[in-house]
Amino acid sequence: MIPIRSASTAQQVHDWLYGCVLRGDLLPGMRLSETEIAEQVGLSRQPVREAFIRLASDGLAEIRPQRGTYISRISVRAVLSARMIREAVESDLARIVARTRPDLGAMERELDLQARADAESNVPAFVEADDRFHQAMAEAAGHPAVWQDLDRLKAQMNRLRHLSMRVFDRNQTIAQHRAVLTALQAGDPDAAEAAIRTHLRQMLTEVPHMMDAHPDYFTE
């Protein structure tokens, strides 16, 4: 773990731990120590305890009385539900963008950043650029709040993505994003919808593979 140099509140500790869990720096089943984390961030144990409670409410930690706090396993059901919702919503967003043909420079920039992150084998930067690519599409459609709603649903999905992008061909994801962007730029709603559906269905291949590779990381 990397200490938080300027943390002063339970929320900051929570946000840091939240990011660690999503990136896979804290793996499913790992035990969290209030004392160790408090020492790392330079705080008392109380705000750290509060951060653990918030992390548990996010579904990312499990507080076991008399035993401690542990990073929860990845919920396959939550992953698949978030994927299904994203496909339905983002298909509509893609059609809106293709029909209205707004400026798509932000999506182009995020695609370039993904390619750079892939070349550097920087998985966290790759996944973050992936997220921003989809966020930029929602913003281009004129519905930025939709992405905020989706973002709250996909914590478990992002945990899987940080794991899977270490082993799957990231160029495939880049190619899928390029297909989405090309269809949007061409103003072709049908092609844009088909491309985004193909991209978001990639996870249906990733889930069983990752479950076989890391059975202890997942729960139904």
UniProtKB/TrEMBL annotation:
The record, for SMART domains, names:
FCD, HTH_GNTR
Among its keywords, does the record have DNA-binding?
yes
- The answer to whether the entry has keyword Ribonucleoprotein is no
List where the protein spans the membrane: none
Which keywords annotate this record?
A: DNA-binding, Transcription, Transcription regulation
Listed name of the protein: GntR family transcriptional regulator
| Species annotation | Paracoccus nototheniae
Q: Which InterPro entries match?
A: GntR_C (IPR011711), TF_FadR/GntR_C (IPR008920), Tscrpt_reg_HTH_GntR (IPR000524), WH-like_DNA-bd_sf (IPR036388), WH_DNA-bd_sf (IPR036390)
Cite a single Pfam family from the UniProt record: FCD
Please report the stretch or stretches of sequence annotated as the HTH gntR-type domain: 7-74
